[in-house]
Amino acid sequence: MDDSTAHSPGSSQAISFLADIRFHRVLWLPPSPENGRPSSLRVTYSDLGAQDGEVLLVCGGLYGSRYTLAQADKLAKKRGVRLITPDKPGVGGTEPVDINQKVKAWFDIVQALVKRLDLKHVAFLGHSSGAIYILNSLLHLRHLMHQTRPYAALFTPWVLPSHSEAATPAIASMLPNWAIHKWYETSHFLSRNDITPNLGPSTARPGVKMDTDGMTKAIDEKIMEYALLEDVEGVCQEALFCLKRGGESAWGSWRDYDEYIPLLKQQESGRGGASKIELDVFLAETDNSSGERGSQWFDGLWKGEAGDWIRYSSSTVPGTTHETIMRMESGALGSVFERITTA
């Protein structure tokens, strides 16, 4: 970046925006020996949008950064949504945990945030591998959801290469663990799309104007710069987690989505007259990570089991990719905000 760009008005405004304390919240979790975590855990998170709004707890994808939905701050304020996004373990300022403790650490983080921020209830959003954590939340943190409008959204949920046949994940699945670490350190995987998935290049939905103003670009560049100054080792571990290179229980009490859905169905069917979970799934028009075939497989599983125990809906968002589906101009994120704020 040259001096003129570094000192441009847009760059100065971006620095001020990202320096806001809302992006740099810190939470300390006490030791949890029962969850395999003998020491305390430092967690960093962002708290954006309307502070008195409906809470949307966000679990990002491969990178899993607290900056993931930085550009959604303005829209969230307008729609009355509070966005809380923790850094995943080993990313940003959140300390790492063992690969087999990642889901349990997520449970601890969510419950600690609910207590610290005195939240009455939460809705959940997961992008890519974040879907694994959010689906586990529906099983184990159901009590934290709204009593009459329990809601969760998944964006391009991660699907194993054995189902997706996507080239890049398939290649990664054949590599030994040390090679995956090296690959992610030296490849383009740590690109702007990973760190700011809502800002990466994409084809806009027909009739939607791309947001390319100077401020947006400046924030994009600063997020990239700041994120790479912090810890990124967790990205390599998350890649291994996605490929199930941990133990059999790394994803929780289920090995794949075809085992998960019956577990949730059994739980929800046993709740009697309780309000049904609303689960919205947003699929990309082009997906080189989960693959078109993988997305169809995932969607087909849910549609095959959906019934009066859940309100399941899926849609393909035109002009989007796995990494860019949460961009503001796609409209998908805005529809999520509308869902959780509409009685």
Automatic annotation (TrEMBL):
InterPro entries: AB_hydrolase, AB_hydrolase_1, AB_hydrolase_fold. Residues 55-322 form the AB hydrolase-1 domain. SUPFAM superfamilies: alpha/beta-Hydrolases (SSF53474). It holds the Pfam family Abhydrolase_6. It comes from the Eukaryota. This is AB hydrolase-1 domain-containing protein.
